[in-house]
Write a structure and sequence with these properties.
The complex is a heterodimer. By secondary structure, chain A is mostly beta strands. In chain A, 0% of the residues lie in helices and 53% in strands. Chain A has no helices and eleven strands. In chain A, the strands form two sheets. In chain A, strands 2, 4, 5, 9, 10 and 11 form a six-stranded mixed β-sheet that branches. A five-stranded antiparallel β-sheet of chain A has the order 1-3-8-7-6, with no helix packed on it. In chain B, a hairpin with a 2-residue loop joins β5 and β6. Chain B is globular. The chains are: A mainly beta, B mainly beta. Chains A and B meet through β5, β9 and β10 of A and β4, β5 and β10 of B.
Chain lengths: 111, 113
């Protein structure tokens, strides 16, 4: 079983809709959870971090964490074509000195 | 505030050669982590340095090594290059550990022929 799992997609949503990206992780000691966005040919860009159960909102982005279910998600409201990218879920390995990444979900926002 | 810089941006080597990549973290950041990104394996953790000490290491062969200097700049070295080492090598800097919000540099694209 992979340590961090994401659906590879592509996830296709129309412009203006809500995109929902999901991630599950296996290590119960993980305390820090991140979402990175990566455009083709570019490096990952940190867009959200979440450390406690519940929701965290930042602009059009909402991260949700459920440690009991070992599940973290990212909602993107009012999706724009510029949101089309690969979204990487990252989880700490019980230590601040290492992150484990999922393989990413490719999001396509269509006009 | 300047971001993470990596040099060189592109590199072409042949099998058996060695290579050294450099990463300069964001000013004030003391932690530097290195990752290898390939289409098949995604982002794989190589190692992390904090205050010149390696705190964590991934599952890579000993051909992959690194170090960090007193100014927090870091280098990674790959010896006896193999075709499978072709990848995007990314470094991430953070204040105290990438698990506390890490910011990636643009990466070094290594091609091994």
């Amino acid at each position: 079983q992979k340590e961090v799992e994401q659906n590879s997609g592509p996830l296709s949503v129309p412009e203006g809709a809500i995109a929902s990206l999901n991630c599950t992780y296996s290590d119960r000691v993980s305390q820090s959870f991140f979402w990175y966005r990566q455009y083709s040919g570019k490096s990952p860009e940190l867009i959200m971090s979440i450390y406690s159960n519940g929701d965290k909102e930042d602009g059009r982005f909402t991260a949700q964490l459920n440690k009991a279910s070992q599940y973290v998600s990212l909602l993107i409201r009012d999706s724009q074509p510029s949101d089309s990218a690969t979204y990487l879920c990252a989880v700490d390995a019980g230590t601040a000195s290492k992150l484990t990444f999922g393989t990413g979900t490719r999001l396509q926002v269509t006009l | 505030k300047a971001g993470v810089t990596q040099t060189p941006r592109y590199l072409i080597k042949t099998r058996g050669q060695q290579v050294t990549l450099s990463c300069s973290p964001i000013s004030g950041h003391r932690s530097v982590s290195w990752y290898q990104q390939t289409p098949g394996q995604g982002l794989q953790f190589l190692f992390e340095y904090f205050s010149e000490t390696q705190r964590n290491k991934g599952n890579f062969p000993g051909r992959f090594s690194g170090r960090q200097f007193s100014n927090s700049r870091s280098e990674m070295n790959v010896s006896t290059l193999e075709l499978g080492d072709s990848a995007l090598y990314l470094c991430a800097s953070s204040l105290a550990g990438v698990g506390l919000e890490g910011f990636f540099g643009p990466g070094t694209r290594l091609t091994v022929l």
